[in-house]
Amino acid sequence: MIEVHDLHKHFGGFHAVDGATLSIAEGSITGLIGPNGAGKTTLFNVIAGVLPPTSGRVSMAGEDITGLPPHELFHKGVLRTFQIAHEFGSMTCRDNLMMVPGGQSGETLWNTWFGRRRIAEEERALRAKADEVLEFLTIEHLAEQRAGEVSGGQKKLLELGRTMMVDARIVFLDEVGAGVNRTLLNTIGDAILQLNRERNYTFVVIEHDMDFIERICDPVICMAEGKVLAEGTLAEIKANEQVIEAYLGTGLKNKDMVGA
């Protein structure tokens, strides 16, 4: 689905992404791991159009999408979330979801004057869909609560919910477990698995929690110093000498990866 070929992103003399080549299969939940500074988030930002690449190519289903801006990729079904949730804090959780779909009739001055019935019908449909998403994520009780007042884990669920308000094809999740308690992380994992199995969502997940990665991701890709080191199951990754050295600075295979 996504092909990344010899991708580079330089900041002056610093090579944050340094010749990364990888494939994301349609319908997969791919884990992306690596030590801090490995280039994982920068890779996400380049694929999702937040940053232009220095060189290299990104394609989706055979179409070159290299350097396309986020709003164009959004309409192609490419969405991403961030390590720190980007909610609209003063708006309710329901309203945060309802504002996601683009091209709403109420966005034009003409329609606010002459298309009020159409706007009302669209808002009813969007409200119903938002409530369905909130129920799916088991946070329907937060519908009227301001998004800025809910917990970190609930904000992450809300971000995931925003991807459900449009026809997402692939979703890039950046450290979905950061600052989230274990109970809510399990809820997030359940939602990802269900979206993948029932709606064929493709996910790419950056995460440091190896238990979470092991539960939901196959395959797993490991990066270090801007390069792809290895790809396979998490068990294969853990047994890879280069990966162990990248995490621990040692070739001892009898140690587990920690703090990944």
TrEMBL record:
Superkingdom: Bacteria
Residues in ABC transporter domain copies: 2-250
A single GO molecular function term of this UniProt record: ATP binding
Pfam families: ABC_tran, BCA_ABC_TP_C
Gene3D superfamilies: P-loop containing nucleotide triphosphate hydrolases
GO cellular component terms attached to this protein's record: plasma membrane
Keywords: ATP-binding, Nucleotide-binding, Transport
Keyword ATP-binding set for record: yes
UniProt cross-references to InterPro entries, sorted A to Z: AAA+_ATPase, ABC_AA/LPS_Transport, ABC_transporter-like_ATP-bd, ABC_transporter-like_CS, BCA_ABC_TP_C, P-loop_NTPase
Protein name per its UniProtKB record: Amino acid/amide ABC transporter ATP-binding protein 1, HAAT family
Organism annotation: Roseovarius pacificus
Lineage: Bacteria, Pseudomonadati, Pseudomonadota, Alphaproteobacteria, Rhodobacterales
